[in-house]
Amino acid sequence: MNWLETIAAELPAPRDDEPPDLRRRIVAELADHLQLAFVRELHLVRDETKARERVLARFGDPRRIARKLWFEAMREKIMSQRLLVASSAVTTALCLAMGLFLWRISAQSAEASRALIQETREMNQALIEKLGALAAPGVPQQSADMVHLTIRLVQKTPNGAAAAGYAVHVRRPGPTDSPEVASSNIEDRSGSDGTVDCGLVRFGNYIADITTPWKQSAHINFYVRAGRTEQVETIVCPKGPPVDDFVSLAFDVPADLRDRELRLVVEIRLLPHELRGISWNNYGQSEKGIISPDGTFYGYGGWGLLSKNAGGGLQRWQFTLNGNARSRLRIPEPWTIRLTGVGIVTKRVRSETEPEEPLSEDLVVVPAQSENVARSDTTVGERVNFALEEVWDQVHKALARYDAAQATAIDDSTSEAAQDDDRPRDAAGEN
Amino acid sequence: MDSRMLWGTVDMLILEVISAGPSYGYEIAQTVLERSRGYFEITEGSLYPALHRLERQRLLAAHWQEADGRERKYYKLTPAGRAALAARKKEWSEFARGVQGVLGGRIPGEAGELA
After folding, report:
1. CA–CA min distance A81, chain B (Å)
2. Which residues from chain B sit within 8 angstroms of residue A60, using beta carbons?
3. pLDDT at position A309, please?
4. Contact A343/A265 with Cβ under 8 angstroms?
5. Positions in chain B short of pLDDT 50
6. Interchain CB distance below 8 Å, A60 and B43
7. What is the DSSP letter of A203?
8. Which residue has the higher pLDDT, B44 or A419?
9. Residue A260: what are its φ and ψ, rounded to 5°?
10. pLDDT surpasses 80 at A294
11. What would you report as the CA-atom Rg of chain A, rounded to the nearest whole angstrom?
């Protein structure tokens, strides 16, 4: 019997990855079995047809068994291939899904970008139109709000020479920590043409602080007017430092008081220098100082001298009354000198850090009864005479009371000392 | 017999038959039938898939040899197949003793015999 064709009839189509002798071996093995079974059955029934039928009835369908064996042999490769195909399909599907997702995201992003670009274009266009409107000449907004300000400094008169090298500080009035004031600060120094370019400033009130090279200063209020593109603020400044006056203080001291420790107490005030309605203060002229003709002349406070009672423009000076004293002062005009009284020295303070002269608290001041004031604009020459007659009368009386008090204090201390001396002796005698 | 009872023992029977020496499919089936006195009849539909499976499991090794003018596939036991056979025989003995014990019969391998 030829079983080979029967068995191989339903085997799957050959595959590239199939072992070359797989199906031949399967068919050969089954055919051998069938042939052996056929021989046995033929021996029993003596009929080939019946023998074949009995073999197949016992064996079953050899095509199905062959097909099963082939699949079992190829199972691993087939499953691997199917798994590969499945994974490829899944990968492809994922790639397609990802591509679709990215495409949709990209489409949405592009749409959003187009909308954003369009919105930005509209905003830019609106901004350009607004800026164009602002830049157009004759538009009241620009001139109404902002003005190009120039500070022009001249010497002595409005048509005077340019004041060069002056410090200029332009600011808005108000608290210095307010944003408006802080943002409006302009500090510069006038150039050779005497001007300071402040640029565009908002209309309103302003203050210009001007400081001369010799440290005189003034505060000028001015108003930047709206409705114009430019404003030049002219400020008349001093041409140079104030003129120093030489002042001699003359006074007669009674003969019986010339050996007493007395001081003439005066107040010297430096007055502001008025120029075209602007007050220029003279503070900061400390280097001018005071010249003492007899070496016993000291200042208290102000002007950078030995200072105890410093303050303001009102100065107090004490003069040693040394016979018919003549004190010669050098003072920037304008000035006033006021005689306030005569001081009786009650204590002398001498140390390296303090002046040789007594401090104000070490004086008993006898005030002048009448007004004794000398002014720079009424003083002719440098001699200033003070009428001190009535002051001397008061000084005599004060000295009498002071001397009496001192004598009483001495007597008391002497008496107490005597008692103290007795007590130890008594104590010694008892011992 | 009920084929379900044979299901778990086919591999063990095949290995046992082959343990006597190289054999081929038809001979294995006939040996089992004869040794069981016609009780176990392994159909070819079960025999060859089992042989091929044991071969893939490296419990059997196969070679081809010409016989009666045809190619014939012979199977022989590998060392791994021999160890597997011993393990399955032991397992089967324990199973049979358990079943026999429940059924009240003589337990194989034990001294004495129930009347």
Report:
1. 20
2. 43-45
3. 32
4. yes
5. 111-115
6. yes
7. S
8. B44
9. -90, 155
10. no
11. 61
Least confident of A127-141, A312-326, A369-383, A414-428: A312-326
Residue A310 tokens read as 């410093």
Tokens linked to A401: 């009371």
Q: What is the pLDDT of residue A382?
A: 66
Q: Contact at 8 Å (CB) between A300 and A362?
A: no
* B30, closest residue in chain A (CA to CA): A37
Average pLDDT, chain A: 74
Residue of B71, B74, B75 to mutate, testing the A interface (most A Cβ within 10 Å of its Cβ): B71
Q: Per mean pLDDT, which range of A126-135, A245-254, A318-327 is the poorest?
A: A318-327
Interface of B with A in 61-100 (CB under 8 A): 64, 67-68, 70-73
Looking at the complex, report in whole angstroms how far the Cα of residue B75 sits from the nearest Cα belonging to chain A: 12
Q: Which amino acid is at B72?
A: R
Q: Look at residue B81 and give its three-state secondary structure.
A: helix
Decide: A359 and A300 in contact? Cβ < 8 Å: yes
Measured between alpha carbons, how far is A298 from A306 in angstroms, rounded to an integer? 8
Q: Quick one: tokens of B112? A: 């004495």
Tokens of A348: 């002398």
pLDDT-based confidence at A133, cuts 50/70/90?
low
DSSP E strands in chain B: the ranges are 60-67, 70-77
Instruction: ipTM value, please give it.
Output: 0.82
Residue A188 phi, psi (nearest 5): -160, 180
CB contacts of B44 in chain A (<8 Å) are: 30, 33, 58-60, 62, 65
